[in-house]
């Protein structure tokens, strides 16, 4: 899978390729699902696990903000795959936090992580996954050097901007029908620089009830 993404120029970073080789996607997809196909997959509760090329894109965009000792927040953490990748990058001195509003997905994601190379970080406490409304972030371990949002918001939630550290970067899909993957850099003076990386199609960042109803 990683070689395929390198071949097509999606992965150019050695660090990202190492992390995606270490955190086995097979631990994170539903049983009977082919784990290494480059497409999103349903994980129940009207949620998906993103395609490997999107995970690779987001990891590369955030790589400089996922150095050892840094704090990372993964909103809509789903299966826990990307949260585990973050944890490996920031290491035991850092902090990787997943927030997911479907309790059953939080429980299964913890089981997934326990089967993966990130298990020691979960046990030691530098990696954690919480039930919560991702639109509000997770203030306990803020500010964050890196924030990833795995669902599309109509606009960037203010709580996430507030929890982004000066010098930090957030990657978030923004839009309704048509969405752009936005890269939000917070400058040292607190101002934001925002640019679009690519057009994307994500499930909406919404309430638990709306998601379970199918929006």
UniProtKB/TrEMBL annotation:
GO process annotations (BP): methylation; protein repair
GO CC, alphabetical: cytoplasm
EC supergroup of this enzyme: transferase
Keyword Iron-sulfur: no
Domain of life: Eukaryota
Molecular function, one GO term: protein-L-isoaspartate (D-aspartate) O-methyltransferase activity
E.C. designation(s): 2.1.1.77
Any Pfam family hit: PCMT
InterPro entries linked: PCMT, SAM-dependent_MTases_sf
Keyword rRNA processing: no
Reaction equations catalysed: [protein]-L-isoaspartate + S-adenosyl-L-methionine = [protein]-L-isoaspartate alpha-methyl ester + S-adenosyl-L-homocysteine
Entry keyword set: Methyltransferase, S-adenosyl-L-methionine, Transferase
Family assignment from sequence similarity: Belongs to the methyltransferase superfamily. L-isoaspartyl/D-aspartyl protein methyltransferase family.
Protein name as it appears in the record: Protein-L-isoaspartate O-methyltransferase
Organism: Citrus clementina (Clementine)
Organism classification: Eukaryota, Viridiplantae, Streptophyta, Embryophyta, Tracheophyta
């Amino acid at each position: 899978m990683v070689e395929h993404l390198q071949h097509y120029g999606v992965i150019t970073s050695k660090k990202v390729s190492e992390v995606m080789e270490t955190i086995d996607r097979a631990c994170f997809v539903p049983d009977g699902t082919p784990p290494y196909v480059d497409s999103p997959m349903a994980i129940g509760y009207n949620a998906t696990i993103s395609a490997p090329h999107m995970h690779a894109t987001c990891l590369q965009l955030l790589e400089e903000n996922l150095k050892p000792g840094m704090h990372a927040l993964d909103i809509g953490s789903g299966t826990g795959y990307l949260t585990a990748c973050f944890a490996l990058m920031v290491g035991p001195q850092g902090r990787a936090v997943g927030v997911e509003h479907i309790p059953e997905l939080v429980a299964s994601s913890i089981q997934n992580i326990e089967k993966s190379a990130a298990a020691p970080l979960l046990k030691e406490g530098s990696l954690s996954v919480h039930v919560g409304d991702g639109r509000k972030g997770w203030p306990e371990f803020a500010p964050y050097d890196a924030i990833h949002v795995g669902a599309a918001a109509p606009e960037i939630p203010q709580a996430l901007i507030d929890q982004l550290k000066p010098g930090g970067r957030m990657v978030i899909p923004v839009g309704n029908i048509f969405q752009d993957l936005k890269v939000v850099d917070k400058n040292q003076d607190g101002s934001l620089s925002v640019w679009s990386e690519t057009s994307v199609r994500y499930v909406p960042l919404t309430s638990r009830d709306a998601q379970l109803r199918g929006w």
